[in-house]
Amino acid sequence: MRFIVAPDSFKGSMSSLEAGDTIRRAILREMPDAAVHVIPIADGGEGTVEALLHSTGGERIELQLRGPYGEPVSAFYGRIGDGQTAVIEVAAVVGLPFVPADRRNPLQSTSYGVGECILHALEGGVRRFIIGLGGSATNDGGIGMLRALGVKCLDAADQPIPPIAANLNQVSTVDFSGLHPLLAEAEFRIACDVDNPLCGPDGASAVFGPQKGAAPAQVEELDRGMRVYAQAVEESLGRPGLQNAAGAGAAGGLGFALLALGGKMQSGAQLIAETAQIEALLADADWLFVGEGRTDEQTLHGKAPFYLASLAKRYGVKTVLLSGSLGDHLDELYSAFDSMHSIVNRPMTLEQAMTHAEELLFNAARNIVRLWK
């Protein structure tokens, strides 16, 4: 039997690599002669660097950058096996975990550190980038990142504006002439699984601002400033309507800024799967194991397990889903997965389930394999 094990992370409990190794051990416990290939999967958020470094080889690069409020933080990015591609998780540079809940004020946020990270990779010879959007603490429309890369945002008096979200409404002119010259050779692929525009009721500030600490009045202020800033960027580039592009509102508007640099949006799950070359492995597999922390109707909207199951169908490979919990819409989910299983095996609290997630996942996978055996 040939198994592909490609789970997403069980957030707060196990990384995708840890979950994959747990399922692998369960399979081999019952079928010692099975061929098991673990491919940790991510959707562009937490775990993206780890997943791609495991699948392709490469190195993790640690460095000091500016965090979401401009303070020094210990961050990292990955340089995958080809030596020419950098993988950056926005969350690893300006993520919510860097800011305690009682200190969150997205008006003071900046994505400057993401630009510093890109520069570090550029100057190290990288020209291809995979940028994972998700988990950011910022809501600055990418003004900080652009400033770090040489773009100047000026007010009505042609004075430079400090690149934080509170100043977006002061932007009158955006000057791209100082953009770092190596960016002309760079290619950005943006791993993004949301399609929100930059502004409005479905935009970055309204949808994601509250989880970053924005009160209702701040949400309105951020959205107004974002419109002013976005219009200035569009006029400078001659690209009207860029703020309305799908994914422009991702990561507090970093999606918009990366699109302004010529980046291409792509499903995070698809991008990671392609880079890890999972399709070639599925062509020779019997079973696919996928997993995630919770499965519900959102899974059907391009999340990693759904994308992989769709890919497996092309090759006649059956897909088993192991999840922390199963929500409603099971009939719709069965259109994607051949079998679905919650790993929780007795009444317990969420905290207990998360604490014992590895044991629960191992036992659930083992029971499935015993049935086949």
TrEMBL record:
Keywords: Kinase, Transferase. It comes from the Bacteria. GO terms for molecular function: kinase activity. Signal peptide: none annotated. InterPro entries: Glyc_kinase_flavodox-like_fold, Glycerate_kinase, Glycerate_kinase_RE-like, Glycerate_kinase_sf. PANTHER family: GLYCERATE KINASE. Belongs to the glycerate kinase type-1 family. This is Glycerate kinase. It comes from Paenibacillus residui.
